[in-house]
UniProtKB/TrEMBL annotation:
GO terms for biological process: cell division. PROSITE patterns: S4. This is Cell division protein. One of its GO terms (molecular function) is RNA binding. Residues 183-245 form the RNA-binding S4 domain. InterPro entries: Nucleotide-bd_a/b_plait_sf (IPR012677), RqcP2_N (IPR048443), RqcP2_RBD (IPR040591), S4_RNA-bd (IPR002942), S4_RNA-bd_sf (IPR036986). Keywords: Cell cycle, Cell division, RNA-binding. It comes from Apilactobacillus kunkeei DSM 12361 = ATCC 700308.
Length: 260
């Protein structure tokens, strides 16, 4: 990948940028659509930025339902028109004894990953408070159906479900307009969840914070557009848009908050 492009992104994002460049080249050279695995919002932004530099390519995303967080990307030449089936996403309902058991997001994800599949093959995990569903790549669907018979001590069965039956998530993202003294991670957490800066700093330092699905223990880490910050027991914050500075030098921003 061109060094001029890499300088606009973080150093740790360069391997992902290089993998995107390989997919873009593959689509150009073979003149066919190329499908990614599930991408988080920051990765979606990076891939979109790179594909938009190509005049003869487009990219589209699908995660199984509107406003999904994790999505598969499809890079394709101008002749191609993608359909839902091209994204090769499967939706499963988790059947379990609702009256006698309680499932949690972390338990479900842990069980799925414990079967040996990669995180990038699993999309969103959804609940309406009682029912649970998850999305995955088509390639691993049959494997998971055979492998998963319990989550913790709870007996379960996985039922393949149509996208028209996807449940509405219990919690919804809410956009907020705010001003920030900086885009430090602890400052964003403090603002998004209305807690003190010191409390936010401790959460980060004690490794209770993930940035784009990876632990980050640096309170001073600079957050940028489309980053997702997950804070244990609090929820998630996404920096949706930066909107310049005020006369007093503070930063205007739109953040999306998903509280637990």
């Amino acid at each position: 990948m061109n060094k001029n492009i890499e300088q606009h992104f973080r150093k740790e994002e360069v391997p992902f940028i290089d993998s995107c460049a390989d997919l873009i080249d593959e689509s150009i050279n073979q003149y066919r659509p190329i499908l990614t695995k599930f991408l988080n919002p920051r990765q979606v932004y990076i891939l979109t930025t790179l594909v938009n530099r190509q005049s003869d390519l487009s990219v589209a995303f699908f995660g199984g339902y509107p406003n999904s967080e994790m999505k598969r990307g499809l890079i394709y030449p101008e002749y191609f028109e993608p359909s839902e089936d091209d994204y090769q996403v499967k939706l499963f309902e988790i059947r379990y004894p609702v009256k006698f058991s309680k499932l949690r997001h972390s338990k479900i994800l842990g069980t799925l990953l414990g079967s040996g599949v990669e995180r990038s093959t699993i999309g969103d995990i959804l609940t309406d408070g009682t029912r649970w569903q998850f999305l995955c790549t088509r390639e691993i669907a049959d494997f998971l159906k055979m492998q998963i018979s319990s989550i913790g001590k709870t007996k379960v069965s996985l039922i393949e479900t149509e996208f028209s039956d996807v449940i509405t998530p219990e919690n919804e993202w809410r956009d907020e307009s705010t001003t920030l003294s900086s885009f430090r991670m602890d400052n964003l957490i403090s603002e998004g969840f209305n807690i003190s800066r010191n409390d936010a700093k401790e959460l980060v330092s004690h490794q209770k914070v993930h940035l784009n699905w990876a632990v980050n223990s640096r309170p001073d880490y600079e957050i940028t557009t489309h980053d997702v910050v997950s804070v244990r027991r609090f929820g998630r914050i996404r920096l949706k848009r930066q909107e310049g500075q005020t006369k007093k030098g503070k930063y205007r921003a739109i953040i999306s908050v998903l509280k637990k």
